[in-house]
Amino acid sequence: MSNFSRLMAQSSVIALLPLIGTPAFAQSIGRGIQPEYVIVTADRAQSADPAATDIQVTAAKAQEQINTVNTEDMLKFAPSLVVRKRHYGDTQDPIATRTSGLGASARNLIFVDGIMVNSPIGNNNSAASPHFGVAAPQDVSRIDVLYGPFAARYAGNSTGVTVNITTRMPEKFELYADITGAIQTFSKYSTDDSYGTWQLAGGVGDRYGAFSWRLSANHLDSHGQPLGYATLTRPASTSAAGTVLTGAFNDFNRTGAPIVVIGDTGLEHQVQDTDTLKLAYDFENGMQLSYLASLFHQDNDSSVRTYLSNASGTPVYAGNSNIGGYNYNIAASSFSNNVYNWQQSQLAQGLSLTSAKDGDFAWELILTRYDYLNDKQRVATAALPGAFTAGAGTINRMNGTGWYTLDANTVWRGIAGHELSFGFHRDAETFAQTRTNLTDWIAGGQGTVVNAAKGRTATNAVWLQDIWSLLPDVKAALGLRYEDWRAYGGSNFSTAPALNVSQPRISASTLSPKASLGWQISDNWTMTGSWGVAFRMPTVTELYQAITTGTTLTVPNPNLKPERVSSYELAAERRTDSGFVRLSVFEEDITNALLSQSAPLVPGSSTLFSFVQNVDRTQVRGVEFVIDQYDVLFPGLELMASLTAADARIRQDNAFAAAVGKFIPGVPKLKANAVATYRPNDELSFTLGARYADRSFGTIDNSDPISQTFQGFAGYFVVDARARYKLNENWNISLGVDNLNNDKYFLFHPFPQRTFVMSVHYQQ
Predict the structure, then answer these.
(1) Residue 273 within a domain
(2) Which of 47, 159, 223, 649 has an alpha carbon within 20 to 30 A of 38's alpha carbon?
(3) What angle do CA 523, 524, 527 make, to 5 degrees?
(4) How far apart (Å, rounded) are the C-alpha atoms in residues 491 and 489?
(5) What is the mean predicted confidence (pLDDT) over 352-361?
(6) How far, in Å, CA of 243 to CA of 315, rounded?
(7) DSSP 181-250
(8) Would you say 346 and 91 are in contact if contact means Cβ atoms under 8 Å apart?
(9) Does residue 13 have a pLDDT over 80?
């Protein structure tokens, strides 16, 4: 994306803001629009808690405005958030917030009916990505998003956002069925192809007096565009050595070094099935008992495609080669390590018992568990093309990995002017990973163990919060959270280089104060100030990672310290009968930030390696502007927009001086969203949305100046469109386009280009 294009994109989004008109109350309704259709609410003024939910996305509105295939799509236009979704069905889909990038998944909490579906075993955008599939889009009632660590109820992982996904239960017999199809046209380097996705979803439920139930099933079959490229760094001098090959493309990597691009990698074909059962029983005294179980299974095949061919036209994947007058020794792993089959079966369960919500005293008990029943990835290591059908490889297993949570929460309103809440929390995580050799990567049995890692973490916490009505128009929330954390049972094993280490047991105890003050200045104006301290504990994979350094395999630091976060926010909000506007100023200061950076493993060495370390201090300062307005210019037109500007810097780094003063990886200076929906009548709606972000960096010292390349983080401007028509009370049909303007950009991976989506929905 050129600088001119970025400037025009930025100007286009910002230019929408003056059109939105007078800010207003989000739950008021436009012509023919009911309150449940609101996509954004910021109900601090209406809630007892000054630090209440910042954003709410309702299912009805998301289904109308967003080309929703997977549940995470519903957050597409949420202010300040970016969900890294590389294609439909992507299971590596972390959230970036206004203060953290896509590689900081451990700074977010995500729940489905109380079940923790963010992956607490790591802090990355791959294996530690959230498991949104526990809730099918058709079963979601609403999504509540709370920004920042200002609520004592939540752990320090709430530093970025806390996302609560609530699913619905039927009040009478209901039956639904969805069929969705999508086709993406993709063109880059030597690839000019189309990639299709189809999905079938259905559900049934009913209520018999006090008992209600819901059963849903979702089947997805998705082919994605290339997720990566095989590249070679160009030698310093020319040479005549090697077999002459053609088909490569000259380019630059993200550090500016010249490379040749020799093929597509990560051509995934995913087949997913998710089956979810939810049961609920309402007792006569107002108590409710509910149980949810969701079983997910995925079969993911990844392939590659070489651009290279020899003089006879035969495709080439490896060997001593000459490309454009330069000699390259193409390793078998350049392509073969991206050929794999990955099978996953995971089970999420949640059991909750809640008291009646009226009266002075209420309570809830929530027990959840998430298990990796089967997780094995078979990867080829032999040279292609032979490895397409047989040959050596490895298998990586994560069976036995999982976590559970226990929460007991109460609220007491027995003292006039006070709402006192307190609770107990426990979570425990288990990580188990074993990689073994295979003589046949496709069907062979396990061979010798190559490496293994395991470990556990657990946290016990108690919290207390008082919401105090100081004056009729002034409320304060004071909270305190105590956490006792430990990591234990850690070990690392490797055969070559040799390593067999039992890691030390470590622990930490922390105290996190919270405070918020809300002032209802007038019927329309509210001001809120919030401050919170939080501690984000190291995850299992951050503690027990293994780094290969030549002939030595080292675990650099199994004694990582918790991140200490201090966050501030000051927000002013105005509401009227047709919308609202909010301006927030925020700051986040982190000491001992857990980031991957380059440093010597051996003291005094000049050789650098990248691994997770405690960075002394980071700081993010910014502003966020959100506006939502109904009946703009003429009846039936709704406009919503948000703009976030952030200055995110490394302030102190004693281990890596080159990073000081540089931008934090993955946090752009500017992000913006805008959505316009026109409803000419109750049956028809048209939506046009836009998403924009500046370029960001992938390295802590910002040594990646080239953004529009594989592994770079480019700026983007993406326009989405959707039309929805209700045929009758049972049927509706929708047509949409994602990336209508066909922006070809990278966020490390190449992202989807223009994609057409069609869905038919039946509801009884």
Answers:
(1) no
(2) 159
(3) 105
(4) 7
(5) 91
(6) 13
(7) EEEEEEEETTEEEEEEEEEEEEEEEEEETTEEEEEEEEEEEEE----EEEEEEPPSS----SEEEB--EE
(8) no
(9) no
Indicate whether 44 pLDDT > 60: no
Query: What's the token pair of residue 368?
Result: 């959840």
Tell whether 410 is covered by a domain: yes
Domain of residue 591: give its range. 3-263+279-763
Give how far the C-alpha of residue 12 lies from the chain's centroid of Cα atoms, to the nearest Å.
27
The whole-number average pLDDT for the span 158-183 is 95
What are the C-alpha distances in Å from 414 to residues 51, 127, 421?
Answer: 21, 46, 11
Separation CA 302–CA 265 (nearest Å): 8
Measured CA to CA, the distance from residue 629 to residue 21 in angstroms comes to 7
Q: Give the whole-angstrom CA distance, residue 323 versus residue 232.
A: 10
Contact 418, 411 (CB under 8 A): no
Tokens 């980031």, residue?
A: 595
Largest CA distance in the chain: 87
Domains in the chain: how many in total? 1
Alpha carbon distance 749, 188 (integer Å)? 12
CB atoms within 10 A of CB 421: 23
Structure tokens at 178: 């969805």
Residue 713: DSSP 8-state: B
Distance of alpha carbon 764 from alpha carbon 761, whole angstroms: 10
- 632 band by pLDDT with thresholds 50, 70 and 90: confident
Is 274 inside any structural domain? Answer: no
Q: Which helix (H) or strand (E) element contains residue 61?
A: helix 59-65
Q: Is residue 683 part of a domain?
A: yes
Contact partners, residue 625, CB within 8 Å, separation at least 6 = 17, 581, 582, 583, 584, 642, 643, 644
Mapping DSSP to helix (H, G, I), strand (E, B) and coil, where does residue 736 land?
strand
Q: Which residues contact 274 (CB under 8 A, 6 or more apart)?
A: 133, 134, 136, 217, 218, 294, 295, 296, 297
As given in the structure block, the two tokens for residue 664 are: 């934090």
pLDDT (tens digit per residue) in 469-507: 999 999 999 999 999 999 999 999 988 778 888 999 999
Buried b (16+ CB within 10 A) or exposed e, 614-648: bbbbbbbbbebbbbbbbbbeeebbbbbbbbbbbeb
Three-class HEC string of 315-326: ECCCEEEEECCE
Q: What is the CATH number of the domain that holds 423?
A: 2.40.170.20
The Cα–Cα gap between 263 and 245 comes to 13
Average pLDDT over residues 384-401: 95
Instruction: Give yes or no for residue 552 having a pLDDT over 60.
Output: no
Angle (CA) 714-717-720 rounded to 5° is: 135
DSSP state of 751: P
As separate numbers, helices (DSSP H) first and strands (DSSP E) second, the chain gives 4, 40
Instruction: Among 37-41, 147-151, 303-307, 635-639, name the one with the lowest average pLDDT.
Output: 37-41
Percent of the chain with pLDDT over 90: 81
| Residue 384, number of CB atoms within 10 A of its CB | 22
| CA torsion through residues 735, 738, 741, 742, sign | negative
Position 507: which residue type? Answer: S
Residue 666 DSSP class = T
Flag whether pLDDT at 24 surpasses 50: no
| Whole-angstrom distance, CA of residue 576 vs CA of residue 23 | 6
Q: Look up residue 663 and give its DSSP letter.
A: B
First to last CA, the chain: 46
